[in-house]
């Protein structure tokens, strides 16, 4: 994979060429995140992987965080596509919908990792314009999710469903780090007395989402 500048083709001029360059950068970032910790993924490492300069990456994304925000948007869209396919047909039981939501998220650890770091990492070192663009796409994705939910759960209108999607992000941000502990935490919680300290992400996430959904269904 490389976006090294070729003779006579020093910049991607057309929209299609620019999209190919952006996709190559996001593909490289995704591959790196599978291999090394997020804190080690920077523009220097990305440029080395792509065989180009940091300047060429900054043409498309203003910073490392800009790359990761775009990657979060891309992986979330892919998840929504999977979720729409895996959700039970409407109308259905709330628990079935919540379980599909939790299980399909858990199957995408990269998405969960990026989403859980949104406020503390990804929304730093980026311009207001980049954050606005991210949040507009996030709203579009969550609105799509809200429509999928409200179409399947009786009594959950789109406004309440959109609220639930926001609650779901907050739950994920808090829960994901606890469900992916350090080796020392894993060793410590092997103690039978600390069995409740071990977090099964899809089960815990579904439990918390279900509580939030039932609270919204009970509101006038």
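^ Assign residues to that structure.
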């Amino acid at each position: 994979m490389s976006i090294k500048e070729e003779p006579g083709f020093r910049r991607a001029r057309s929209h299609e060429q620019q999209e190919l360059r952006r996709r190559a950068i996001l593909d490289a970032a995704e591959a790196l995140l599978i291999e090394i910790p997020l804190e080690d993924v920077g523009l220097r490492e990305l440029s080395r992987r792509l065989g180009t300069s940091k300047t060429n990456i900054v043409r498309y994304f203003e910073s490392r965080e800009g790359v990761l925000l775009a990657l979060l948007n891309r992986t979330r869209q892919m998840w929504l596509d999977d979720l729409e396919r895996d959700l039970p047909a409407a109308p259905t039981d709330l628990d079935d919908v919540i379980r599909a939501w939790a299980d399909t998220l858990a199957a995408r650890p990269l998405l969960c990792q990026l989403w859980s770091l949104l406020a503390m990492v990804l929304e730093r070192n980026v311009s207001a314009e980049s954050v606005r663009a991210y949040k507009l796409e996030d709203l579009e994705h969550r609105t799509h999710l809200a429509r999928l939910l409200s179409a399947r759960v009786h009594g959950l209108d789109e406004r309440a469903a959109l609220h639930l999607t926001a609650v779901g992000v907050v739950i994920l941000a808090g829960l994901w780090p606890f469900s992916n502990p350090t080796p020392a935490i894993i060793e410590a919680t092997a103690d039978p007395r600390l069995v409740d300290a071990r977090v099964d992400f899809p089960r815990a996430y579904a439990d918390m989402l279900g509580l939030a959904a039932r609270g919204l269904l009970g509101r006038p």
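Residues 64-86 form the longest helix (23 residues).
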